[in-house]
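Protocol step 4 of 6: structure prediction from sequence.
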Amino acid sequence: MMAWIPFMQPMNALQSTWYLLLIPMAFGIAVIYRALREESYATYWRSVVIMTGQIVFGIAAIALALGMFVQFVIPLLNQP
């Protein structure tokens, strides 16, 4: 039996709940980005929450668009 090889054999431990990791990832990105770009720290946390929502909404919209493409457009490509 061979050992587990990263990148060649992905681990499926979080495959069913990957979307739960989207919110902490988006929050971390927003905290760091807004800390570097915010001119006034009076509205810092409000900006972080808004940017977190934008990231989550954007990734969800991309996932929905790709899912629709795979379900409806790709099967049409196989028809004569």
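Step 5 (inspection) to follow. Residues 25-77 form one domain.
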